[in-house]
Amino acid sequence: MNWIKHTILAVVLLLGTNAFALNPNNENSNNDTEIQDKKEVSFIDICLSETSKNPYEILDKLMSQPSCRMHGPEHHVLVGAALLTAYKNAGGEINLKEALATMVERGGEVPGGACGKWGVCGAAVSAGIFMSIITDNSPFATQAWALSNQMTAQALADISKYGGPRCCKRDSFLAVLSAIDFVRLHLGIEMESPKNTTCSRSEQNQQCIGKQCPFNEINQSNNNRNMKSFGSKPWMVPQPVLIIGTYNEKQEANAMNAAWGGTWDAGEIMISMGSHATTENLKLNNGEFTVAFATSETMVASDFVGIVSAKNDPKKMEKTGWTVEKAPNINAPLFKEFPMVMECRIKEKIGEKGNSGYYLIAEVVNVLCDERYLNEQGNPDIEKMNIITFDPCNMKYVECRKCFL
Ligand SMILES: Cc1cc2nc3c(=O)[nH]c(=O)nc-3n(C[C@H](O)[C@H](O)[C@H](O)COP(=O)(O)O)c2cc1C
After folding, report:
1. Distance (Å, rounded) from C-alpha 34 to C-alpha 38?
2. Which of 224, 250, 283 is the last residue of a domain?
3. Which pLDDT belongs to residue 38?
């Protein structure tokens, strides 16, 4: 593990910044002939003289140095170095020289093959190190700690989507693309995105995943896209997983699952209601009900209340294990396991014919959110809630956090 750290540190700190001997033994190289023909330039020098705000292009330049191999732990430094350079050029306030030295030190500690051995790709870690440096993170920090770990997580999610075998080029470029969006979203600094991301190194990679790679030529143009038809389907995505809470005539709580719902107007929601025990309950209590948002933690029971009716199973609610409490502003139950809940009252029923159901329009009387799920501004932080959505194409639940990453 330490060979690369010592090599880089020795080169950078003792000999100055005139070399980029990340691969002294030229191990694992797939472009030996190319190396002999090219002149090495220090990657620190490249970064310090660079004016581009585009970390993808900077990384490409750094990777084109003769000693940079097709695969190898040097990428654990180069990803962060490219990001630091672009970040600085885009207006980020950092001392680039010092930041690069820290990057070399920290990135050099991440061993080759960490993706396989630890399940943590070093390119993603490099993006996390970049975030730690620019936010001055430490194990005791609060916001910076969260951001740095989220940065690594996002890069890892983006990288792992394509499966293995690893490609240090693909994974490094993906980490950089993750960071461009992440920095814009969380720090408001606009690094530039690349216009062309076609891979020029696939022939040097014996394990290239070809058409599966997002940088493969075939994926660069919409002309190669084939669209499959599915006919008429009400596939609005993502769909919510709403848990509707009502009381029956005995003030006993019931819950059902509804995915066909959404915003109707300011302060109003709509739900497509079929004929259920809940529909009967909605004739009572002034049409009052709660709507909670299902989470990963409540997913199994949320599905259960969507497939079992209180008409058929008097112990339905008992089986969910949920803690029932009366909502403060309406006569409907709320279930304490859910982080956020809306207190609602029916305003209008559209298309009601007999008992076949209708489209329910309801005013939102109040929204309640568990204080543990608020952000720094005091608003509900849905990223903290592990909300799930319903995937109507595959009839399954999807965790929203996978969409956030
Ligand atoms: C994922 C999912 C989504 C559903 N969406 C709706 C919906 O939008 N509208 C509806 O009337 N029923 C929907 N249902 C069906 C009801 O939740 C289900 O019939 C439930 O058992 C009714 O319970 P109840 O009879 O105790 O009120 C959905 C069920 C599932 C599993």
Report:
1. 7
2. 224
3. 62
Determine the 3-state secondary structure of 265 from DSSP.
strand
Ligand 1 contact, 306 CB (< 6 A): yes
Cα(260) to centroid(ligand 1), Å: 9
Does 310 contact ligand 1 (Cβ within 6 A)? yes
| Ligand 1 center from residue 282 Cα (angstroms) | 14
The pLDDT of 307-316, averaged and rounded, is 98
204 lines ligand 1 (CB under 6 A): no
Counting ligand 1 atoms within 8 A of each CB, the residue from 236, 241, 246, 257 with the most, and so the one to mutate, is 257
Ligand 1 centroid distance, CA of 366 (Å): 23
CB of 259 sitting under 6 A from ligand 1: yes
| 255 shares its domain with 381 | yes
- In this prediction the pTM is 0.71
Compare 259 and 225 and report the one with higher pLDDT.
259
Task: For residues 387 and 279, state if they share a domain.
Answer: yes
Based on the fold, state whether residues 65 and 152 are members of the same structural domain.
Answer: yes
Categorise residue 364: left if φ over 0, alpha if ψ from -120 to 50, beta otherwise. Answer: beta
Strand partners, 333: 326
The predicted pLDDT at position 30 comes to 42
Q: Do 283 and 194 fall into the same domain?
A: no
Q: Is residue 230 in a domain?
A: no
Is 168:121 a contact under the CB 8 Å cutoff?
no
- Whether residue 185 sits in one domain with residue 326: no
In a domain? residue 232: no
pLDDT band at residue 37 under the 50/70/90 scheme = low
**Position in ligand 1 atom list of the atom nearest CA 311:** 25
Do 215 and 124 sit in the same domain of this protein? yes
pLDDT tens, 143-174?
Answer: 999 999 999 999 999 999 999 999 999 999 99
Tell me, using a 6 A CB cutoff, whether residue 109 lines ligand 1.
no
pLDDT at residue 359 is higher than 60: yes
Sheet strands (E) in 143-265: 239-240, 242-247, 253-258, 261-265
C-beta 256 within 6 A of ligand 1: yes
Q: Is the dihedral of CA 354, 358, 363, 366 positive or negative?
A: positive
The reply to whether 92 and 116 lie within a common domain is yes
Take atom 31 of ligand 1 and give the residue whose Cα is closest. Answer: 306
Domain that holds residue 173: 2-224
In terms of domains, do 92 and 177 share one? yes
The pLDDT of 120-149, averaged and rounded, is 97
Q: What is the pLDDT of residue 402?
A: 65
Of 191, 224, 257, the last residue of a domain is 224
d(CA 246, CA 330): 10
What is the distance in A from the centroid of ligand 1 to the CA of 241? Answer: 10
| Mean pLDDT for the stretch of residues 11-39 | 40
In the predicted model, is pLDDT for residue 33 greater than 50?
Answer: no
The enclosing H or E element of 149 equals: helix 143-160
